Amino acid sequence: MNFNLKEAIEVLERTPRALGAMLSGLSEGWLRCDEGEGTWNPSEVIDHLIEGEKTNWVPRLAFILKEGEGKPFPAFDRFAHLKEKSGRTIEERLEEFAAVRAASLATLKELVGSEETLERTGLHPTLGVLKVRELLSAWVAHDLTHTAQIVRAMAGRYREDVGPMIVNLSILGSKR
Amino acid sequence: MNFNLKEAIEVLERTPRALGAMLSGLSEGWLRCDEGEGTWNPSEVIDHLIEGEKTNWVPRLAFILKEGEGKPFPAFDRFAHLKEKSGRTIEERLEEFAAVRAASLATLKELVGSEETLERTGLHPTLGVLKVRELLSAWVAHDLTHTAQIVRAMAGRYREDVGPMIVNLSILGSKR
Description:
The structure is a homodimer of 176-residue chains. The first copy, chain A, is mainly alpha-helical. In chain A, 59% of the residues lie in helices and 5% in strands. In chain A, strands 1-2 form a two-stranded antiparallel sheet. Chain A is elongated, with a radius of gyration of 18 Å. Chains A and B meet through helix 1, strand 2 and helix 8 of A and helix 1, strand 2 and helix 8 of B. Chains A, B: It comes from Cohnella xylanilytica.
């Protein structure tokens, strides 16, 4: 096991800055490219990350600490962000992500005061018993999953354009 | 085909900032994690990107524009960066990457003055005839390939830690 809270927070606090640096000011062609039907483009991924701060990670943490395994925490609608088309710019949404993430991390530090808290358990609606440390590990891996998704979608735009050099570019080799 | 020079430069100029925001100040555990034997950790990827600025992308572009298909451009040692262990901090190397990338982009803008230049061709040592536009597309995709590699390596550190939540985290599903 590799998880520790300090290192996890290092990644969580960097994600908004990294995605801000990657996406802010980009042309629409980059922001609207995806990996095919039913997949998300970079702009939609940011909406999903904002939604996760509001309804998923810290709310679930608080729920576990309150309810334990007594009742499962509410299911998270992973597609909620697709229903709301706000018309806000990517820069506005990246700023919102940075703000809600900062608030999440402040609450996290309040709620998880000790190593012992990391071992507390709750009940995931479909996956069963879940430890706080597993939820927090998943939060970090979730950031990285969606960062990778953005990067793969962008690389895919040039799948044809790279010509013979595709053989050296593993990211273009297959979709997932 | 999706390539255009302005949009390609948008990505190329953002990569050092994005990787700087992602990696600067991280613990060694994150900087030294890889995807298994023979794969690179985030720190080594930055060294590889620096090496690419010095010996690969713009030097090859200049070679194509000078020699055309007359002679193949020199092979690029993709493992050169592994030979030199500088002992410099990640922040120093991220700064160097930003500096050499800025210089590369300045030269790129000088060398590629028109759409016509994008159609010029050279000879890749193993892949044969290569257009300037293909080389530049590959440069962009190469940035994204290695950004994805960093992110996958980091996510992989928590493969066991996420417990039952692994089923929702596609990045942990398989290596590549």
